[in-house]
Specification:
This protein is mainly alpha-helical. The chain has seven helices and no strands.
């Protein structure tokens, strides 16, 4: 069976969707607010690509915990909402879109997020 990442079309689809999210919110941010969002965008793309991959435990959990440390919880939640709606717009099933968001959300919720590297 293929990984969730393969089912959604690979890392390029995930990276493009995260980029679209930041372009959409970037219109509503001041230059000061958006200065570190490039780091956040990269980190979120890495986390989602990892979450949707088929890596075995405990490698998956340790890498996810490392990546989650750089994520802003509010932005990550907003991104997941965007990803779910955007994938449906792109023609993916509601079931796949919901599964992706649930998988990423559950992995994120199980990570320790005490240190914020990017805003």
């Amino acid at each position: 069976m293929s990984s969730l990442l393969e089912q959604v079309g690979g890392a390029s689809v995930v990276n493009r969707t995260v980029s679209e999210f930041y372009q959409a919110i970037g219109r509503h941010l001041t230059q000061f607010e958006s200065c570190d969002h490039r780091k956040q965008q990269i980190r979120q793309s890495q986390f989602l690509n990892h979450a949707f991959s088929s890596q075995p435990e405990p490698v998956r959990s340790s890498r996810a915990s490392f990546l989650a440390r750089g994520l802003n919880p509010a932005l990550f939640e907003a991104l997941l909402e965007y990803v779910e709606a955007r994938l449906i717009e792109l023609g993916f099933s509601i079931q796949l879109s919901s599964c992706l968001v649930e998988t990423a959300g559950d992995l994120y919720d199980n990570c320790e997020q005490d240190l914020f590297i990017a805003c």
